[in-house]
Structure formats: C-alpha cells, structure tokens
Amino acid sequence: MRASGTKRTRAVPTTLSARLTGQVELETNASGEIVASVEGYLENLGKFSARAVERAQGLRSGLLLGSFEPDGTDTDKEVHLLVRRLARRGLVEYRLGRTSKGDGDVVIEPQVPSYWPRTPSLASDDVLVLSRFAYMRQRAGRLVLESPRAGALFKICDPRIAAALAVLCAPQPIKRLRRRADFPGLDLLALLVDSQILFKIDTADGKTLRAAEGNENLVVWDFHDLLFHTRSTEGRHANPIGGLYPHLGITPPPAVRPPWPGEKLSLRRFSTEAASPAADLLRARRSIRDFDDERPITLAELARFLDRTARIQSTWSSRLDLGGDGQGDGPMLMYTVRPYPSGGSSYELELYLAVDKCEGLERGFYHYDAGDHALAPIGARTAELDAMLNGAEFAMGAPAPPQVLITMAARFGRTSWKYSSIAYSLILKDVGVLLQTFYLMATDMELGGCAIGTTNIDLFAKMIGTELHAEGPVGQFALGRPRTQR
Fold it and tell me: Which residue segments constitute the domains of the chain, with CATH numbers given?
C-alpha cells in the first residue's frame, strides 16, 4: 500500500509504451464496443469512438504512454480509459526501450490490477540501494527482477542493465551512477523506486539498511517469509494458483505409501473399540461446502462456536530471560491462554468474519475481539465484502457463498519479534491447529465447515486499512448450517 500524501512525479518517459500481452486480441462489434479476446474468453471493454478504435490497434506493437494523456484530446482520454481498463484486467504490459522494435531494454509485467507506471522525481544527490526483498531469477531464458513488495516484475532484456543494478547492492548516489558507462537510465531507476525494488536512503541518519527501508512492521520480516506469504496467496502476483494439475505428465504419488520391507508389528490388538467422544468427533469430521440458506446459522450458535474455539480464557505475564542470571533481565511480556496451542504462546492470529447470512446478525464484516468476546463491525465496502465471499465460493467449488467466512489474519510481528527464519512457518502451523479446532467444534455443534486454501491478501489489506505486511490473512474457514444434517 502506498503512503498517504502527494508523490512528486516526473513526466512519463518518452520511451515507455503499453502493449497487449500474449494472446490478447482486440475486436470491435457493430455498436462500436471494443472486446478483448483471450483464448476464446471475451471481455467487454465498453463503447469507444472510431478514432479511439483506430488508435487502439497500435497496442499490438505498443503505444507510447505519453501519446494518450488523460488531460489531452477527447481521443487521448478515450485511449487512456481503454488502456486503464485493459490494465485492471491484466491484459497489458509496459516496454521501456530506446527502439520501437522487440523487447527493448526492460519489459514491465504488472502483478496487481492497480499497477500503473510512475516515475517519482529523483535528484543527483539522492542515494539509492536495492531492497533486501529484491531478487533476480531466470525465467524462460530471461532474467526477471522482482520483489514481494512490488506491484510489477521487470524482465531484464539487456544483460548490461542487470550488471549495472548489481552495483546497487550498496548505496550509490545517482550522480556517481551517471558516470558509469552502463548507467541504466533515470527512467528505469525511478520506475524501480516506485515499485519499492529500489529505495532512497539518508546516509546521515545512521540507520542500518534494514531499518531504513520501512517501518517496524516491515523490519521484522525475513526475505523468505515475505516472499512465501505473497507468492502462496492471491493479490500480489499474476501467477496461476490453485488446483490446476500442472504436472499431469508425471505419475502422482500413491495415496498410501508403499510399505517398508520386512515383518510388521500389528497394533490392532492394542486398539480399543470403546466409544470415545473425542475419537467420534475426529472420525465424523468432514468438509462441508453446501449450506442451508433457508435455515442459516444463528448468532447464538456463532457466539458459542467462537467462545469454544478462540476466546481468551486468561492472561499471564513473565519477564523475558535473556540468558543472564536466570532471574529474567528482559522486558515484561504478556501472554494469553486460548483453547488451541500456539508457537511460543504468541497467539498472533486474529479472526475476521465476513457474514453473508446469520440469523440475528446483519450482513457485514466484523472483527472478533477474543478478550471481550464481542464482534466489532468494520466499515468495509459492499463490493469488497462481495468479492471476499465470492472468492471463497470459487475456491471451494461451492454452489453459493458461505454463510460465515472466518479469515485468520496474523499480526506477523507478534511471532517474528521472537523467532528468526521460522516465524512464518510457525504461523502456518498455528493456522493448521486452529483449522482442526474449528472442524471439531463445527462437527460437535452439528454445523458445517470447510477450510479454504487461498485468499486475496491485497483485498484484505484494503478492507481493514493496513499494510499487508503488518497484519494479513493466512487462512480461511467457511462456516454455516449444512444443507443436510448428519
């Protein structure tokens, strides 16, 4: 998310153009509407004038961004609107180069619908350095430069640019970079600053690079953790995600592992058939995706469910022992006790409820206050609430949205303040534990539930108004009354 306030920007680079991606074709119907065709799928982009339609044909090879300013002629405004609509659908990319043919120097591939190239003002005395989250990798024979914080990735088509950017592993003033024969150009540097792949540093403030790059919410993140978080969820990349069976050419591993050779020790004679409520719950647990919307879950049932699975039962404090005399020489820390375990008693997970249908509770978005056992309404927009519920419906392959969608969001710093290298791994383990707790309680209460494998972290950040690296979704659970009672 961008910081509030006005960002000074330079004019659009004269060598930056927008062009259609891959298999996109633009077609015009009899009424003047432009339709994007992508592998047989059609997307209506609206009605445009004949001149705008003619100009739009240039998007196949590329249209200079400066040639259709939003405050230009009527045709310019139309073309700008068309390109913006294409961009929001992920159907354009941007090319930075000195020639009008081929890939040029750099191709910018948006990773989020809101990305639009911007070039903040840079001065000769500004000192730039690569973000510690930035990395280069090989993809289809080309180098790509990306970051989990960036809204776009940069395909480096000229290897000299890659070599020039490597110098920015250490802080460099722009005036020094200009003297290099392989200077990558001010336009590219500004685009990389806008994408948070590069950032400005004040060498006089005495901060380390890690502390200078962002606030306390960002400082606690390790590179691999933030990368894993953003690339294993929706909202911050354009890669395929979910059950797409990408390796159909490989025989899948068997459902049951082939047995080890040798004589086995049977455990059957030690097993008891005596009834056990806990064992019965474990065996009865099922994922339920179809809910009875004529008899939705009630507020009383929801309250009991949250009370038994996530409510804070008590709090306690302990002084941190930093390895001194054993008496505790660190700060006093407070901990909570809840119905499920958590790594290091961090209890970093917060519950947010997107309510579609619940008898006694208005449709809306709520935070569960586990200390006061209360729901606090959050003023999310209806379109955002619909998008979250519809995303869960699609992810489950369900016939309708869940009655209540519980999002588990992590206050990441609660865990990473203590743990290094394993922080995000511990958070995901906590999610697994809480999901099983939800399943067992739903089964016990004759409700239906289903864990959901992915969620949109960018959408969630907009709904609660926070930076995605400060607090973000790490799991979801659909809850409601099953259509057919067990």
Answer: 9-104 (3.90.930), 114-214 (3.90.930.40), 278-480 (3.40.109.10)
